[in-house]
Design brief:
Mean pLDDT: 85
Shape: globular
Radius of gyration: 19 Å
Helix content: over 70%
Order of helices and strands: HHHHHHHHHHHHHHH
Number of strands: 0
Number of domains: 1
Distance between the termini: 15 Å
Length: 309
């Protein structure tokens, strides 16, 4: 199946519901990460998360007969993705240690705007338009509102926000590159190998820099860790890449607006984080910007198909 065909698949109602469900799961992930820090060191949490997730994906792939072997030239491509993935997730965990899950969710979901800028320069046929510029402006104003909030915002929180903003940019870089090559891989390979690559780095960082690797592994902390590992990092990542390979980025990325909504609301409900008017207005602007950027008519999608992530 060609990249063009992949991008032009109409998404049926059942797949749309499933995609919305996946985005809700991903939106809640920052809350789970933040909660796990109450019992596990920052880098240790990342190392354990991806160790469990990689093991789950390995046994699932073995059981279902998925191919592990990479073809000539694919190893270098996977290495590039793995390095960016490790930097991206390392900054995400460090950032969430310092800032709130609500603020972190909003900052990381600026990724579509960074991707839009990268696509303009590096993806043929995906050029800037007035509608996209409007979406970018909304996202930029939302980012300013997040940074301008003063209630409970310390210098550490602002550093955490900046780290997650860099995370969003790295995620966009990874996505732009992955878009060009995913059709050459089995979806689980694009998840499994970057995870395998990052595990020793995170565990070593945990040993060297976490004050204590394991503080308190009670039922709630363990549940938060397993949610990150089994629900989002294994099932979620493989399911998302599979859907992208089948329906393409045009169809799926219009659902991304669900992630910041879920993250902000759950951060307030579960972690008791303050939901200020700046956060709510920023949420509204970022969500509206994402919808504006990603909404495309069928005719536009046929002329300028977006390559699958």
């Amino acid at each position: 199946m060609t990249q063009h065909n992949l991008s032009n698949q109409n998404i049926p109602f059942s797949a749309a519901l499933f995609t919305g469900f996946l985005c809700t799961l991903f939106g809640a992930n920052a809350v789970a990460i933040k909660y796990s820090f109450s019992g596990i060191g920052t880098f240790t949490a990342a190392g354990l998360r991806f160790s469990i997730a990689a093991a789950a994906i390995y046994f699932w792939a073995r059981f279902t007969g998925r191919p592990f072997a990479l073809r000539k030239g694919q190893t270098f491509q996977v290495l590039i993705i793995s390095i960016i993935f490790t930097l991206q997730l390392g900054l995400l965990y460090l950032g969430l240690e310092k800032t709130s899950a609500s603020r972190g969710t909003l900052m990381v979901n600026l990724q579509p705007f960074f991707l839009l800028l990268l696509a303009h320069w590096f993806i043929p046929g995906d050029r800037m338009t007035k509608k996209k510029i409007l979406g970018l402006i909304m996202g930029a104003v939302g980012m300013v509102l997040v940074f301008s909030g003063k209630k409970g915002v310390t210098a550490d929180v602002q550093i955490g926000d900046l780290m997650i903003l860099i995370t969003a940019f790295l995620w966009a870089v990874n996505t732009a590159y992955t878009k060009r090559i995913i059709h050459l891989f089995s979806p689980f390979q694009m998840v499994f190998y970057p995870m395998l690559f990052c595990i020793p780095f995170f565990l070593l960082a945990g040993f060297l820099w976490d004050a204590r690797m394991i503080v308190n592994l009670d039922g709630k902390v363990l549940s938060a860790l397993l949610y990150q590992s089994l629900v989002t990092a294994s099932f979620g990542f493989v399911a998302w890449n599979t859907m992208l390979l089948k329906y393409g980025a045009v169809a799926l990325h219009s659902f991304i607006f669900i992630m910041p909504i879920a993250g902000v609301l759950l951060g307030g409900l579960i972690l008791g984080e303050p939901i200020t008017w700046e956060l709510l207005l920023a949420l509204a602007l970022i969500v509206t910007g994402i919808v504006t950027v990603n909404f495309r008519s069928r005719r536009y999608s046929q002329i300028f198909p977006t390559r699958g992530i």
